[in-house]
Amino acid sequence: MSAQKDSLKIIAMIPARYQASRFPGKLMQDLGGKTVITRTYEAAIKTKLFHGVYVVTDSQLIFNEITEHGGKAIMSKKEHECGSDRIAEAVEDMEVDIVVNVQGDEPFIEKESLAELLSVFKAKDAHQIDLASLKTAIETEEDIVNPNHVKVITNKNDYALYFSRSPIPYIRNKEATITYYKHIGIYAFRKKALMDFYHLPMLSLENAEKLEQLRYLEYGKNIKMVETNLKTIGIDTPEDLEKARKLLAN
């Protein structure tokens, strides 16, 4: 067990809602002979970074899929609008320090990026960090304008200033050199920040963009962003699933 695991109890939670708005049932779709949710669960286990990995779901179908393959799953007791709320309910009575939210539709997560994410809780500014997440440079105009690819801007110390489905920043000065960053929806929360989120109401920015991470910013939480070269495929649409199948086949 690593030194990091000796000092902090770290678990991974995979929120898995069956009725996704853009692609209902996507987590149970076939991806190279296994379901999307099973591949994501196995990828999280394979990293060996966690004391435990759990799928937390509102679906008996997904619950059975994980448990029948020897995995750990938790059924939500309440209805939840976002993954953070679903995870918070599940961990409320657990003795943990850091909770990593691995999106159920991210089957290509790998150890290096998750280890980089967790390393911030050992950095000199760790006491300032309520949660951390990943970003990666966007290379195409198509991805910059795609509202399904959430963009993030940060300050000079890599703390998030804002997340948006719109391209941010707006480039008025055409001579400015700007790199756009895509937010990869993998989070590492301090348990307190997660529980605070759970008990605070949604505010206007989160409601407008339908991005739960904005609730943390609106209530003054510090989100540390970690740049990664991970070129993951989050499965939001049937087209994304086809891309994932091609990537897996190569």
TrEMBL record:
Its EC number is 2.7.7.38. It is an enzyme of class 2 (transferase). Keywords: Nucleotidyltransferase, Transferase. The keyword Nucleotidyltransferase applies. This is 3-deoxy-manno-octulosonate cytidylyltransferase. It comes from Mesonia oceanica. The lineage of its organism: Bacteria, Pseudomonadati, Bacteroidota, Flavobacteriia, Flavobacteriales.
